[in-house]
Design a protein that fits this description.
The protein is an alpha/beta fold. It contains 4 helices and 5 strands. The longest helix is centred in the first third of the chain and has 23 residues.
Length: 170
């Protein structure tokens, strides 16, 4: 159940954490666990935004996935959307594509946004099974917090929290 990736998502998690945090404060609990969960989610996503910024020099940023749950089109409380918003707050331009949310294929998305020939950095925000065999371009860089992408699939892979043989691990 618990494994690496992005923070929690869905319409229930933020709503329930806000309600339980309110109750914790109302009962004057000394330790508000629910408030800390929300702050940590934000802090982790902020760290990921900085990691993307650090590795994105002269590259087009593409966030793969906006759904909060893999292989669905549900976006309520999506950590991927939180990441996109944090990047925008930092004035960092990015694009996002989700095979379950968007009505166009990936190639059409590239053409529509005029980014076919750009060097790219990909961040996998949703663990959609579609991304397991995704064809990343040769010069691209991939940041994978889920451990979905194999080293032989892309030349420049940054795994987060996995793959002790890879020097690009965080």
């Amino acid at each position: 159940y618990l494994k690496g990736g992005m923070g929690d998502g869905g319409s229930c998690h933020p709503r329930d954490n806000i309600a339980l945090s309110y109750l914790s404060n109302k009962l004057k609990n000394k330790f508000n666990f629910f408030d800390l969960i929300m702050k940590q989610r934000e802090s982790s996503t902020e760290w990921l935004a900085e990691l993307i910024k650090k590795h994105s020099k002269n590259k087009t940023i593409i966030i793969l996935g906006r759904a909060f749950k893999a292989n669905t089109n549900m976006i309520d409380g999506s950590p991927g959307i939180l990441l996109i918003n944090l990047l925008k707050e930092k004035k960092i331009n990015c694009y996002s594509w989700d095979p379950y949310v968007d009505k166009i294929k990936y190639k059409e998305f590239l053409i529509k946004n005029k980014i076919i020939k750009n060097k790219k950095i990909y961040f996998i925000a949703t663990a959609h099974s579609d991304f397991i065999n995704f064809k990343f371009e040769n010069a691209s860089k991939v940041i994978d917090p889920w451990g979905m992408i194999k080293k032989n699939q892309v030349k420049n892979l940054i795994s987060i929290g996995r793959d002790i043989d890879n020097e690009n691990i965080f």
